[in-house]
Amino acid sequence: MPETLSDRLVADVRADFPGIAGRPERAYLDSAATAQRPASVIDAEAAFARTEYAAVHRGSSMATGEATDAFETAREKVAAFVGAGDREVVWTENATDALNVVALGMADASAGLGGERFALGAGDEIVVTEAEHHANLIPWQRLARRTGATLRWVPVDDDGLWTTDDLRAVLSPRTRVVSFAHVSNVTGLIAPVADVVDAAHAVGALAVLDACQSAPHLSVDLASLGVDFAAFSAHKMAGPNGLGVLYGRSELLDELPPARTGGSTITTVTMDEAEFLPAPHRFEAGTQPVTQAVGLGAAVDYLSRLGMDAVHAREADLAAELVETVAAVPGVRLVGPAPGSARAALASFAVDGVHAHDVGQFLDDRGITVRTGHHCAQPLHRRLGVTATTRASAYVYTTSDEIRALGEALGEVRAFFGADR
After folding, report:
1. CA–CA separation, 400 vs 404, rounded Å?
2. How many CA atoms lie within 13 A of 197 on its CB side?
3. What is the pTM of this model?
4. More confident call, 347 vs 5
């Protein structure tokens, strides 16, 4: 595997993605929202749907056995990709659902439905950061309201950044959960996960990781990081949408009450009660996203062939180019780590005198796809003093030429809207 992805290899990579190769006139700089899929993923899903599709874990037919084998093989691939055991990977609807599964399970534990170690009550505390995606904020808000616990947050500075020292100042002996993003989807900050986990565990709290922006871009070993739970989504890592992954240490998953109940989750059911399977199946009620799981398995195969160290090295170069390009444009405010600092390959920015939606439309008219809005992080934008930002984000198929095109177009925005007068 290459240590980095050279421009020549990136040209080969671009050819693997129909959504990129088929639209050479477009610079797709919105992979933090959703990544394009390589042909191998699309083909794997289609092949399974055509010739192997059947219900899984139900019945004893050959078709069911083959489909179940494909389904569980995909789980094994994903588990190995993130340094987890096979029983530590749960399929969910998406990463948002995965985080809700943990929060709702803790709510059930607090209501006396098992899993006493997860029970919360008045005086207990849940800690997040002010920079969190709504998916990693609202479930904890609701858990606090259901249980009487207190939600606390780590404040960010004027650039949207926070440190481990900031976190420690918020923790207390009553902290029961610390939930945070590995990589911010707005600022690109890469959190010091090991330090945060150590701080959380030192006060007896569970560490929950939003890995949506890290699993596709970094070499992630969840067991080595020491987190208790983690969530990420397939569609951000060159896989299908409609599928998320919940990671949990096996002993915790076996005790956490399942948030979704019904068929496929049980060992015994009477008219009065039910007993549940061990993880992961205790959390996978109903008909499963089999085709999507097969697609994610193919996406993991693809990324593994590239090598995640090579992916990260390439994206570190792109991150530097992206940040320097945006920061060099007059009248543009970059949020997040300054040029020269480590960050993910995404850049959110505000243009003086021009609304983010207008910036996005201007860029789109010039063939550059970006994301505009609050990026499901309203509290962070409120702290930054803006209603919305424009975000450009890179992935394995992004080129330096596309970033240069972004810079050139961005340099024309203020004059076009008369904001430079």
Report:
1. 6
2. 16
3. 0.96
4. 347
Q: What is the percent of the chain where pLDDT is above 90? A: 92
| CA nearest to 99, candidates 248, 236, 307, 276 | 248
| Three-class DSSP category at 70 | helix
Catalytic residues: 376
Show the tokens assigned to 340. Answer: 């020269």
Q: Right CATH number for 7-30+307-416 from 3.90.1150.10, 3.40.50.150, 3.20.20.60, 3.50.50.60?
A: 3.90.1150.10
* Strand bridging mode 229-233 / 244-248: antiparallel
What pLDDT is attached to residue 61? 85
Asked if 349 and 323 count as a contact pair (C-beta separation under 8 A), the reply is no
Q: What is the pLDDT of residue 163?
A: 97
What is the model's pLDDT at position 1?
41
Q: Residue 64 and residue 69: Cα distance in Å, rounded?
A: 8
With 0-12 / 13-18 / 19 or more C-beta atoms within 10 angstroms meaning exposed / middle / buried, residue 131 is buried
pLDDT of residue 223 exceeding 90: yes
Fold entry, domain 44-304: Aspartate Aminotransferase; domain 2 (3.40.640)
Name the nearest CA neighbour of 345 among 190, 164, 211: 190
**Mean pLDDT (the chain, rounded):** 96
Query: Can you name the residues that pair with 348 across neighbouring β-strands?
Result: 391
